Amino acid sequence: MQKVETMPQTNWGLVAVSIAVAYWLSQFQPFHDFLFGLGEWGIIGLFIIGFFFAFTFTISTAVVALLLFGQVMPAWEIGLVAAFGATLGDIFIYSFIRQHIVAHATKFLARFRKAPLSEVAKTRYFKWTLPVLGALIIASPFPDELGMTLLGMAKVKTWQFVILSFVLNAVGITLVALAANWVSL
Question: Whole-prediction pTM value?
Answer without folding.
Answer: 0.69
